[in-house]
Amino acid sequence: MALERTLSIIKPDAVAKNVIGEIYTRFERAGFKIVEAKMIQLDDELAGGFYAEHKERPFYKSLVEFMTSGPVVVSVLEGEGAVLKHRELMGATNPAEAATGTLRADYAVSIDNNAVHGSDSLESAAREIAYFFGE
Ligand code: RTP
Ligand code: MG
């Protein structure tokens, strides 16, 4: 397996719940290295641009509202097969469908307030890392 990098966002609901440390512990226990990290307050432009692929979807407006509702922690995780491994650690988008022991099963409230983001492919990871941290 190849060494990869992926983008993680700890979303406003999880930051508000005081579980940044617990989520970072899960990343570290899973063998990821946290190679970049920052806490930021997204605005409409930054959040909207990040989720541009969903612009025409009915949930886009509420997604941007949620992502700008408080600070987020944006990190780059590095590890073997990091993209897929991180998605597995997060669990399904809808926490009601997320496997036991995944981040979303444990920390997410609903499909709209689902605690974490992770890049869905190597291509997305490269784009999203550049979006927040530059080339
Ligand atoms: P994310 O990008 O946040 O990591 O989530 P994801 O890949 O698992 O899901 P994605 O399809 O990229 O959707 C982005 C976010 O939009 C909200 N969503 N709502 N109501 C709905 O049917 C619906 N579908 C997606 C979720 O909050 C999801 O995280
Ligand atoms: Mg996605």
UniProtKB/TrEMBL annotation:
Gene3D superfamilies per UniProt: Nucleoside diphosphate kinase-like domain
Broad class of where this protein is predominantly found: cytoplasm
Active-site annotation: 117 (pros-phosphohistidine intermediate)
Domain Nucleoside diphosphate kinase-like: 3-135
Requisite cofactors: Mg(2+)
Pfam families xref list: NDK (PF00334)
Keyword Amino-acid biosynthesis found: no
GO MF term set: nucleoside diphosphate kinase activity
Entry-linked PROSITE patterns: NDPK, NDPK_LIKE
PANTHER family xrefs: NUCLEOSIDE DIPHOSPHATE KINASE (PTHR46161), NUCLEOSIDE DIPHOSPHATE KINASE DDB_G0292928-RELATED (PTHR46161:SF3)
Protein family according to the UniProt entry: Belongs to the NDK family.
Subunit text: Homotetramer.
Protein's recorded name: Nucleoside diphosphate kinase
Originating organism: Marinomonas sargassi
